Amino acid sequence: MRRRLIAAAVVIAAGIAGALPAVADVAQPTVVTADPVDFTPHALDGTVRAIAAVGNTIVVGGTFTSVANEGGFRSVRRPYLFAFDAKSGEIRTGFAPTVDGAVYALAAGPDNSVYVGGAFRTVNGASARGLTRLSVGNGARVKPFNAEINWGDVRTLAVNGKRLYAGGPFSAINGVNRAGLARLDGVSGAVDAGFDAKLTATEMARVRVEDMALSPDGRRLVAVGAITHAAGQPRHQLAVLDVSGAKAVVANWYTDAFRTQCDTSLDTYLRGVDYSPDGAYFVTVTTGALTGPGKMCDSAARFESAGTGAHKPTWVNHTGGNTLFSVSVTGAAVYVGGHQQWLDNPKGKKSKGPGAVDRPGIGAINPKTGKALPWNPTRSRGVGARAIVATKTGLYVGSDTDKLAKEYHGRIGMFPLP
Question: Which Pfam families does its entry note (predicted)?
C-alpha cells in the first residue's frame, strides 16, 4: 500500500548525497502499541491513500481537500496532498503544492524530495499527468524531472538509487509504450529504454499494476494486479522480476495460487504486497468476495522468496469475506488494513466462523505462524485502510474514517513503538 517507505534518514546517516537505497518497510523490534499518539493532524474529508516519510516530514496523499492540526480544528485547504512534522504533528505551511487530482502513491526521493503519483493532470499549474517530483521544503517541482503518463493513473511507486519504478493502468510514459510498469531515471524522468517487463492481460481491458514491492537489496520486484503474462510467460496476477540489471528479467519464481476464482467481476483481486525487511519473504493481501477451502480471496498470504519454480503460500489468513487493501511487514508483525471484521476466519462467509478473532479495520499477524497477534486497537471500518507504513518510530495508518482505537483521528494516525 500500499505504498513503500524509503527512509531518508538512512541516506543522511550514510553520507550518500542524492541517492537512496531500496528499502522494504522499516524493521521494528516489536509490535507497536495499541494506543495512537495524540498529535497527528486530521484529514477532514475524502480518503488518505498514500503516506511517505522524508526525513522528519510525513507526506500524505489521497482524495481529501481539507486538513487541520490536532486540537485546533481550523480547516486548512490542502487538496490531495499535504505534509506535517513527524515529531510535533504540525502541518508544514511551506508545503502547499497545487495538484488537480487524487494522489495514490508516494515515495521519498533524494535531497529532501518526494515522488508523487496519481490521477492528476497538472502540478503547480504545469502539465504533469500522473507523475511528478516535489521539494518537501517548498512544494516546488524539482527540475529537471519531467514524466507524464498517457492516460489512467499511477497507483504505486518504488525507488532504488536513481531508479524510479511506477505502476498503474497506463500504457505509455513520455510517449514510450510501457504496459502498467516502467522504470524511469529518478533525476530526469526519462523512461529506461532497455527495461520492459512486457506485461499483458489476456482477455482483460488492460494491464493494471495495483501495487509492487522491491526487495531490500533492490534486486527483485514483485508486481501484483491485472496481469496474465510477463514477457510471454504465464504469471497469474503476480510477477516476480529480476531488476538488478539493465533489462527486466522474469524470475524463475511463480505461483498458481491466484488462478483460483474469486468475484468474476474483478480483473484482479490482489490489492497489496510488501517484502519483509530481510527480503526472505513477501506478503500479499486480497479482496474477492468468495470464501472456502483453497480460495485466496479476502486474505493475507506469505510467500518465501527463495527457490525456483512453483511456490505455494507458507500460510494464508482469511478474513471470512471482507477486503484487505494494505500490508506492512516489519519483521515483528505483518500489519493488514481493509474493511475486515475478523482474522483467522477461513470458514466464515461474511460471518464469524469457528476460531475467528475480531480485528475490525486493522490487525496484526504473526509472520511465522500466520495467526492473528493479540494487537487489536480497532478502527471504524468504512471502505478500508488504504495505507499502512512503518517508520523507525511507529506505524502510520491512513483510511477514510475518523476513529482509531476508539479515539478521533481524522483519516490518519500513528501507533508508536513501546
Answer: DUF5122
Dihedral of alpha carbons 144, 141, 20, 17, sign: positive
Q: What is the pLDDT of residues 368-393, one digit of tens each?
A: 999 999 999 999 999 999 999 999 99
C-alpha cell at 272: 497489496
Question: Which residues 6+ apart lie within 8 Å of 368 measured at CB?
Answer: none
Give the β-pairing of 103-109 and 81-85: unpaired
- Please write the tens of the pLDDT for every residue from 404-416: 999 999 999 999 9
C-alpha grid cell, residue 293: 477451502
**What grid cell was written down for 144?**
529537471
Q: Are strands 156-160 and 66-68 parallel, antiparallel or unpaired?
A: unpaired
Residue 198 CA: distances (Å) to CA of 81, 177, 234, 280, 281? 32, 10, 12, 26, 25
Q: Do the strands 281-286 and 299-304 form a parallel or antiparallel pair, or are they unpaired?
A: antiparallel
Whether residue 97 is preceded by a cis peptide bond, meaning omega within 30 degrees of 0, is no
Neighbours of 202 (CB within 10 A): 8
User: Mean per-residue pLDDT for 14-38?
Assistant: 71
Query: Rounded distance, CA 277 to CA 329, Å?
Result: 7
Rounded distance, CA 135 to CA 144, Å? 12
Q: How far apart, in whole angstroms, are the C-alpha atoms of residue 296 and residue 317?
A: 9
Question: What's the grid cell of residue 276?
Answer: 519483509
286 φ/ψ sector (left φ>0, alpha ψ -120 to 50, else beta): beta
Q: Rounded to whole angstroms, what are the CA distances from 402 to 1, 77, 114, 272, 361? A: 19, 18, 26, 22, 12
DSSP assignments along 287-344, one per residue:
--S--STT--SSEEEEEESSSSEE---SEEEE-SS--EEEEEE-SS-EEEEES-SEES
The answer to whether 27 touches 7, Cβ cutoff 8 Å, is: no
Cell of 169: 493502468
CA distance 276 to 224: 16
d(CA 55, CA 16): 14
152-168 confidence digits (pLDDT tens) = 999 999 999 999 999 99
What mean pLDDT do residues 333-353 have?
A: 97
The letter for the amino acid at 131 is L
- Smallest CA-to-CA distance from 196 within 150, 230, 222, 227 is with 230
Report residue 45 CA to chain centroid gap: 21
CATH homologous superfamily for the domain 8-416: YVTN repeat-like/Quinoprotein amine dehydrogenase (2.130.10.10)
Q: How far apart are CA 70 and CA 89, in angstroms?
A: 8
